[in-house]
Design a protein that fits this description.
The chain has 458 residues and is α/β, with parallel strands linked by helices. It has three domains: 24-28 and 119-300, 3-Layer(aba) Sandwich (Rossmann fold); 32-117 and 306-379, Roll (Ubiquitin-like (UB roll)), CATH 3.10.20; 394-454, no CATH class. It has helices at residues 120-124, 138-147, 160-163, 188-195, 197-211, 225-238, 261-269, 289-300, 331-337, 378-381, 394-398, 405-413, 417-422, 433-437, 444-454; strands at residues 32-34, 40-44, 54-55, 62-63, 68-71, 80-81, 86-88, 92-95, 101-109, 174-179, 215-221, 246-252, 284-288, 307-313, 321-326, 345-350, 357-358, 372-377. Helix 2 (138-147) packs across helix 5, helix 4 (188-195) packs parallel to helix 6 and helix 12 packs across helix 15. The protein is globular, with a radius of gyration of 21 Å. 52% of the residues are buried. The chain binds iron/sulfur cluster (2 copies).
């Protein structure tokens, strides 16, 4: 039976939530390794929240690694770059992990791949010149990050330059680096903090410089002891790299969904975002650790966002790993590299089991928001039969957004949009806590996702 924690608003906690088994040990010890190049990439032109980018290369054009292949359209959008050298193919539609069909640019990867050889350590590891951050012009940072096409790597894939654009109406005093990675199984952020702590710190300080924030707080769940030690050492070595900006680490009690923006802000800073508001309403900018490294690479090394770390894990995969993956790589290529599926493999999920999407097609590409591939077995999935709702109220007790999931799912099933709206369906963060605890095995979050997608917009 699911383990749940009592709702609490005490410092270090948030309301609702659950405590699923972490299963992190399957992949946590494996250093990030470069994935051998696939022969073909399929790069969607919309991997971010906001307007799709517009292709800017012709079919059969020769591409160099890092070349822009699609232009951002408007402010809330992100450029897309070729991860590897190769030849652009005619745009085609691709189905991404969430099930959305999107235009994409297929790339046939050059056999010798000039300029495209990248390891994680060569890109993000090693020494970073943190002293240079004080000399950056704050207003020039967001455009540099936009140029690199950086989108949030924690899941939502919101274009990062938008968050880094200072707004007079909502001044930011704190940059909150989200290193919680509360989703079971996934270890990509953990490995990034262990292996590239200076890059994480550099990105956080650059964000503070852009927003004139005086404080950087790195929030990590307390069980990530190696990541904490690694970051502590990097902070100590950095000294006062950016004068006037303090840097601290806050260890949080592991609890799902600690990594949600609202939950991390509440637990780490004791600040409560008003209903319908953004983190900026409480003077906070939240950035994921992977996004920090992408910001650092963009600003201090001039590198576009073309790769990301992806955890491949679960008892249904032969050899779990943390991989440095070119964006657009088919997921089946990652699985093959990890020794393939085991005979017990039952479900392949993009992301983790709580917030991820079950894949119907393993040719879906890795995007900027793909944090992991989790392969579950029959034993993991259990066999509790689906029944009618028994009105136990557990789904509401664990909902961190204080919603009534059973009502929302019912409204979605019956396309009762007035009911869905009156119960604030758009406030659902799709954390999956409600489905996790439901004794009737009702796929609540799946119904709610359908409702959010189909809800007529005014
Ligand atoms: S209704 Fe949404 S926010 Fe609430 S528990 Fe379910 S998935 Fe999470
Ligand atoms: S947890 Fe499941 S059974 Fe209980 S009230 Fe919610 S939907 Fe109904």
């Amino acid at each position: 039976m699911a383990s749940t924690a009592p709702a609490s608003s005490a410092p270090g906690h948030f309301l609702g939530g659950v405590h699923p088994p972490a299963h992190k040990a399957l992949a946590a010890a494996f250093p990030i390794q470069a994935l051998p190049h696939p022969k073909q990439l399929v790069v969607p032109i919309q991997q971010h929240i906001g307007a799709p980018a517009t292709p800017c290369v012709e079919a059969r054009a020769a591409l160099s690694a890092g070349q822009r292949i699609a232009e951002a359209k408007g402010f809330i959008s992100a450029h897309v770059h070729a991860p590897l050298a190769g030849t652009a193919q005619k745009p085609a539609n691709v189905t991404i992990a969430s099930g959305r069909h999107l235009p994409a640019i297929p790339i046939t990867v050059a056999a010798d791949n000039p300029g495209g050889e990248q390891s994680f350590q060569a890109t993000l590891g090693g020494h970073w010149d943190l002293g240079a951050i004080a000399g950056l012009e704050p207003s020039a940072i967001a455009p540099q990050v936009a140029e690199a096409g950086v989108a949030g790597m924690g899941g939502a894939a919101f274009p990062t330059h938008v968050k880094l654009s200072a707004q007079e109406k909502a001044p930011i005093d704190t940059v909150l680096v989200n290193g919680c990675e509360c989703e079971p199984y996934l270890t990509a952020d953990d490995r990034v903090m262990i292996e590239a702590p200076q890059a994480v710190l550099a990105g956080a300080l650059i964000a503070a410089r852009a927003l004139a924030a005086g404080r950087v707080v790195i929030a990590i769940e307390q069980d990530k002891t190696r990541a904490m030690a690694s970051l502590k050492e990097a902070i100590a070595q950095a000294g006062q790299a950016l004068p006037g900006v303090s840097v601290e680490i806050i260890g949080l009690t592991p609890h799902y969904p600690m990594g949600g923006e609202r939950q991390t802000i509440r637990a780490a800073l004791g600040r409560i975002i008003p209903e319908g508001g953004l983190p900026s309403a409480v003077g906070t900018m939240v950035i994921n650790v992977g996004s920090c490294t992408a910001v650092a690479a963009a600003v201090l090394r001039g590198l576009p966002m073309t790769h990301r770390v992806v955890t491949v894990t679960g008892r249904g995969i032969a050899q779990p790993a943390n991989l440095w993956v070119p964006i657009g790589t088919p997921i089946e290529h990652l699985i093959a590299h990890c020794g393939g599926l085991t005979p017990q493999a039952q479900r392949v999920i993009s992301g983790g089991p709580m917030m991820g999407f079950a894949l119907g097609n393993l040719s879906a590409p890795v995007t900027k928001g793909t944090s992991g591939i989790t392969v579950l077995t029959d034993a993991d999935l259990g066999d509790a039969p689906r029944t009618a709702c028994i009105r136990c109220g557990r789904c509401g007790e664990v909902c961190p957004m204080r919603l009534v999931p059973s009502r929302l799912a019912l409204a979605s099933r019956h396309e009762n949009w007035d009911l869905a709206r009156s119960h604030h369906i758009l406030h659902c963060m799709e954390c999956g806590c409600c489905s996790y605890v439901c004794p009737a095995s009702i796929p609540l979050v799946q119904w709610i996702r359908v409702g959010k997608a189909c809800l007529p917009r005014d």
